[in-house]
Design goal:
The complex is a heterodimer of chains A (118) and B (968). Chain A is an alpha+beta fold and 118 residues long. Chain A contains 2 helices and 7 strands, in the order E-E-E-H-E-E-E-H-E. A 5-stranded antiparallel β-sheet of chain A has the order 3-4-5-6-7. In chain A, strands 1-2 form a two-stranded antiparallel sheet. The longest helix of chain A has 9 residues. Chain B has 968 residues and is of the alpha+beta class. Helices cover 23% and strands 28% of the residues of chain B. In chain B, the strands form 12 sheets. In chain B, strands 8, 9, 10, 11, 12, 13 and 27 form a 7-stranded mixed β-sheet that branches. In chain B, strands 39-40-41-38-32-42 form a 6-stranded mixed β-sheet, sandwiched between helices. In chain B, strands 43-46-45-44-47-48 form a 6-stranded antiparallel β-barrel. The radius of gyration of chain B is 38 Å and the shape is elongated. Classes of the chains: A alpha+beta (118), B alpha+beta (968).
């Protein structure tokens, strides 16, 4: 059984975790074409190689980001969502358009990036 | 007792058995004797019962091959347990052992005629023979299944006690032979917590029965020294009679010991699993009495059983000569050693000096005898796989084979090591094992005793350092020139006619492998699947290498280019019972569970929860449920709804957050009011419903369905990780008990209790929510009505659940209050036309189809699913959920999921249906095409058995259409 290094709980058996799908930015639902929207819903990259995914530590209901290689079946690293955002400033934080509040708070890359190696 | 004893009464033989403790057991009903410490197979062999089984396809007589549980020849049935390996299973007084896979007796198996029909059973015959004409297979399947089955399953057999254990270690060493012992000792001495696992009851591996530098004493002395040292190390834990059956990622190993499955997490793993003997392939090489030299040595040294009176040895290495010395010491005559090459050295000299005839450059080409080998034909080798005619026939009653080995690379391969063929040693080798895996001993290609010790020690201490997080060292040198003198490159000799077996489990001969290639399956993976070579219980341990050799010879490819088939776990057969273990089935009970039991509730499962289905005898279920329904409609009922999910959502953004999660609008919801909630996923599919209660501007209490609450909670936290709204979500499902007091008398009942909540109609209207105390218990009260009567859903801290239940039951007694269960609730809610998400919706249902358009906020800029629902609304829907009633009261009652048929086509499906006593008819919900949803539209439902039941669309609610009763 694989071990996943949860940023909150440390290394735990993978049976405690739930896969949450690839990280993919949501297009603005108010502006996306029907095709863009349905592709967002139903198409995955399904890449053979390094991918970035959502994972949940189920007992503590804690969501985080994992980078995984689908060829070697290895967890490369895990990190908090904030650490992921700090690294990928372009990743959309699912902010629907036309809504004034509440905006995502700016993510500061402090000393603690929240990243842990796998 | 059958036959005379075959036991060796000399020191140095029979290490595992206790001569002072004889016992008896039966084999096929006949009484046999053995000793404490014997296996079934050794006790039978010791009583001259060499024949153990019939082969899978041709029903040929078979005997022990490895004496180590590695072949399928020894499969027997012990009482109700099928597929027992007789050479591993300890014999016990009184056990009833049966042979398998024969018609009539083991000695005279009527199915053995199959041997003569082999030309009608070509390789791949399942694919070739029964597929034409169409349907022919169904006539042949039954007789084939009867003939092919191994063992008997008794469906009434008790589930015996099996369990699981979880172990954690720095270094795991698999195999307790000299290499494993040296590695484990070195690892433990370096400071690592070390776990050593061996499949045999005694540590030592080949030191238990073999020789070191010709000397049995040297092997015994080495074993005694290593075992004593290992047993004395505090950091070294030893598990014997336990076999590691799989290695998985991150140092995870599975091991089976008796009735226990071990799941082991190791920082470093050393595979020192030794090697597998390889057969000599010649005509009738499967006759009972022909066995590996190591099997004969095990019989002699471990169990004190003489393999025969007169032996022939076929070998290509010194191990065969060592076995000759053992036979001579045990008192068996050695008629000849047939050497496929020209082995030399002190061992050969020792054998020769004891007067044994040695024939070099020759092989066995044939065996006579049926139930046991009687003589073997010997011929000179003239080229690869070629011989002169047999000129010499030697009488014998046992034949020992030692023509090479294949390292046990299965486990390393499970873990991800690559397996290559090494021409220099004519054996496979594991290369680039993944991090955390190392090999030692024969599995690593290291054979000579001195090198084994040095290499294993270095491997063990390196693993210990790596486990401690210290930098690793260069892997020790595994190059051992003596390894080249062990395995004959082509011990395969085809005769003109007859059968030379490659795979004993699957009864595959040289011809079958050649024909597989000729049929076009020339890749080793295809040969395996087409011919079934290696698919039997031995998993190719004895067939894989020879199959590769034949494919190489036929295709002209070098063995290294042919590759090998993939090793997959488990290494040895695992029982379902091992995986099931103690069969823990977690159950969640509500606080009032014991009250339900006292009231005679019949329970049903809802997720992990147990919920009362109804209160009363199973024999009188229908009447009981109707009584419960009537109590709710006419007086009052009380149902335990603690299993409903509850989520506390607090914070300045609570309302805005709920607005995004659910389809309706909540920002303007007044404090003290509940509002229906409908949740969809991103694709607009309905996934949950409930109510949102606003107890304060910044505090909502949201309910969710029993089975979906965990998903809802996950969806909320996943969303807010990204949205970063100022809100806290807590799943308080287990923290609250809840019960629904419903019926026209509900208010009168609560008003008899001391409370700070004003329950009067005007002060606490329908869809109102209040917090306060009821009979001194802190409560959250929701005036909602799933069942369509005036009622209160009362939530309290779980610790008070049983007390509040008792208080309400007592207060309700004068008013005719009855407890009611899930069955009555199903009828009550359906009479009101309320849907149950997951029953009346499926994995594709959108809110418009479910008739929930009224719960979709139009002005909100966003909620999860909004974009998709709008897209579907624009596209138009293809089905709609409607109420219906069966129009003919004499019709059978349809069931959930029965289909609606029009003009022979499926046009819809029933999702819920009940016989309503209140309404005096059968009502339900069903999906129909949008063109068929007008009230009064008639349609037909096909019920069990194919009858068509007429029904018509009826507007919902069926009961109390003005919703007046819930408002009283």
């Amino acid at each position: 059984m694989k071990i996943v290094n949860c940023p909150l709980n440390g290394p735990r058996n993978i049976s405690e975790f739930v896969w949450g799908g690839e990280v993919k930015p949501m297009p603005d639902p108010a502006k996306a074409t029907d095709r863009e929207w349905t592709e967002y819903l139903f198409l995955e990259e399904n890449l053979a190689g390094d991918i970035t995914e959502w994972w949940l530590h189920a007992p503590t209901n804690y969501w985080f980001i994992a980078r995984r290689n689908t060829i070697t079946d290895q967890f490369l690293e895990t990190m908090t969502y904030d650490a992921f955002l700090a690294r990928q400033p372009l990743a959309s934080a699912v902010i629907p358009s036309g809504e004034a509040e509440p905006a995502a708070k700016p993510v500061t890359g402090g000393g603690d990036t929240g990243a842990t190696s796998a | 007792m059958s036959g005379h004893s075959n036991r060796i009464e000399k020191p140095g033989f029979g290490l595992l058995i206790d001569h002072t403790k004889p016992l008896s057991f039966t084999f096929d009903g006949k009484l046999f004797n053995g000793f404490n410490g014997d296996t079934i197979a050794s006790a039978l062999y010791g009583s001259q019962q060499v024949l153990l089984s019939r082969s899978f396809k041709y029903h040929r007589p078979r005997g022990a091959l490895t004496m180590n549980g590695l072949d399928a020849n020894t499969l027997v049935q012990v009482a109700d347990e099928p597929n027992v390996r007789a050479d591993l299973h300890p014999v016990a007084a009184g056990i009833a052992v049966k042979s398998i896979n024969h018609l009539g007796s083991l000695q005279r198996d009527a199915f053995s005629v199959m041997d003569y029909f082999s030309r009608f059973l070509p390789v791949g015959f399942y694919y070739k023979t029964f597929f034409r004409p169409a349907g022919i297979w169904k006539y042949f399947e039954r007789p084939i299944r009867i003939m092919a089955g191994l063992g008997t399953l008794d469906p009434r057999a008790d589930h015996k006690y099996y369990d699981k254990a979880y172990l954690f270690t720095d270094v795991l060493v698999v195999g307790g032979g000299s290499a494993g012992l040296e590695a484990a000792i070195a690892a433990a001495e370096t400071g690592a917590e070390t776990l050593l696992i061996d499949e045999n009851s005694q540590l030592g591996g080949s030191l238990l029965y073999g020789r070191v530098s010709d000397s049995r004493e040297a092997a015994d002395t080495l074993r005694t020294r290593l075992v004593a040292k290992a047993r004395g190390l505090e950091k070294l834990t030893i598990l014997t009679s336990t076999v590691v059956s799989g290695l998985f990622s991150d140092g995870w190993a599975a091991a089976i010991g008796g009735n226990r499955l071990y799941k082991i997490r190791a920082r470093q793993t050393i595979v020192a699993a030794g090697s597998f003997d390889q057969p000599l392939v010649f005509r009738n090489n499967d006759r009972p009495g022909i066995l590996f030299a190591t099997a004969a040595q095990r019989l002699m040294r471990l169990y004190g059983v003489r393999p025969g009176n007169r032996a022939v040895i076929a070998t290509s290495n010194t191990f065969g000569y060592e076995a000759a010395l053992d036979l001579l010491d045990a008192g068996t005559e050695v008629a000849a050693v047939i050497d496929l090459g020209t082995t030399s050295g002190p061992t050969v000299d020792a054998v020769r000096s004891r007067g044994v005839r040695i024939v070099t450059g020759s092989t066995l080409v044939d065996a006579k005898g049926y139930l046991r080998v009687e003589s073997v034909g010997v011929a000179a080798i003239t080229g690869q796989g070629k011989t002169a005619a047999a000129t010499d026939w030697i009488t014998c009653d046992c034949v020992l084979i030692s023509v090479g080995c294949s390292p046990a690379l299965n486990l390393a391969s499970h873990a991800g090591a690559k397996v290559i063929f090494d021409d220099a040693i004519q054996m496979h080798r594991a290369v680039s094992p993944p991090e955390g895996i190392a090999l030692a001993g024969a599995a690593a290609g290291v054979w000579s005793p001195a090198r084994v010790a040095a290499h294993a020690k270095a491997t063990g201490s390196a693993a210990a350092r790596l486990a401690a997080g210290e930098p690793g060292s260069e892997p020790p040198d595994a190059d051992d020139p003596t390894a080249a003198a062990i395995t004959h490159p082509y011990p395969i000799f085809k005769s003109g006619k007859g059968k030379e077996f490659i795979d004993f489990d699957e009864d595959l001969t040289i011809k079958d492998i050649i024909n597989s290639v000729k049929d076009g399956y020339d890749d080793i993976q295809l040969v395996k699947r087409y011919s079934t070579a290696g698919l039997g219980p031995s998993q190719g341990r004895h067939a894989n290498l020879n199959t590769i050799r034949i494919v190489g010879a036929v295709t002209g490819k070098p063995l290294a280019a042919i590759g090998t088939t993939t090793f997959r776990p488990p290494l040895v057969p695992e029982k379902f019972a091992h995986m099931a273990g103690r069969a823990f089935e977690p159950v969640r009970l509500t606080s009032m569970h014991h009250r339900h039991q006292e009231l005679g509730a019949q329970f049903m499962t809802a997720g992990l929860w147990l919920r009362p289905a109804y209160y009363g005898s199973k024999d009188d279920a229908a009447r009981t449920i109707d009584d419960e329904v009537r109590a709710v409609r006419t007086a009052a009922g009380l149902i335990d709804v603690s299993t409903l999910g509850g989520l506390d959502i607090r914070g300045p953004d609570a309302a805005a957050f709920i607005d995004r999660m659910y389809t309706w609008a909540y920002e303007k919801q007044p404090v003290g009011r509940a509002r229906y909630t409908l949740m969809t996923d991103m694709s607009g599919v309905v996934i949950d419903d409930g109510v949102a209660c606003r107890f304060a501007p910044n505090h909502y209490y949201v309910t969710a369905t029993t089975s979906a609450v965990d998903q809802v909670y996950r969806a909320m936290t996943w969303s807010n990780v990204q949205w970063k709204m100022d809100v806290d979500v807590a799943n308080v499902t287990a923290a609250y008990s809840a019960m629904n007091l419903a019926g026209p008398k509900a208010r009168a009942i609560v008003q008899t209790l001391t409370t700070d909540i004003d329950f009067s109609k005007d002060a606490f209207p329908y869809m109102g929510v209040r917090t306060g105390t009821l009979a001194g218990i802190p409560v959250r009260v929701l005036r909602v009505g799933f069942v369509g009567e005036a009622g209160y859903e009362i939530h309290c801290p779980a610790g008070y659940g049983e007390a509040l239940w008792d208080i309400l039951m007592t207060a309700g007694k004068p008013h005719g209050l009855k407890p009611f269960g899930v069955e009555a609730q199903r009828i009550l809610r359906l009479e009101k036309g309320h849907i149950i998400v997951g029953q009346d919706t499926d994995g594709l249902t959108n809110p418009i189809e479910a008739g929930m358009d009224w719960a979709l906020a139009k002005k909100k800029p966003f909620y999860i699913g909004k974009r998709s629902i709008e897209l579907q609304a624009a596209k138009g829907i293809t089905r709609k959920l409607v109420g219906f009633a069966v129009t003919d009261s004499a019709s059978p009652v349809p069931k959930d999921c029965h289909l609606i048929i029009r003009d022979g086509e499926i046009v819809g499906r029933v999702t819920s249906v009940v016989k309503s006593a209140t309404l005096g008819k059968v009502i339900g919900l069903a999906y129909l095409p949008p063109t068929m949803t007008d009230a009064g539209q008639r349609f037909e439902i096909r019920v069990d058995g194919g009858a068509m039941v007429p029904a018509e669309v009826v507007p919902t609610p069926f009961y109390d259409p003005q919703n007046a009763r819930q408002d009283i």
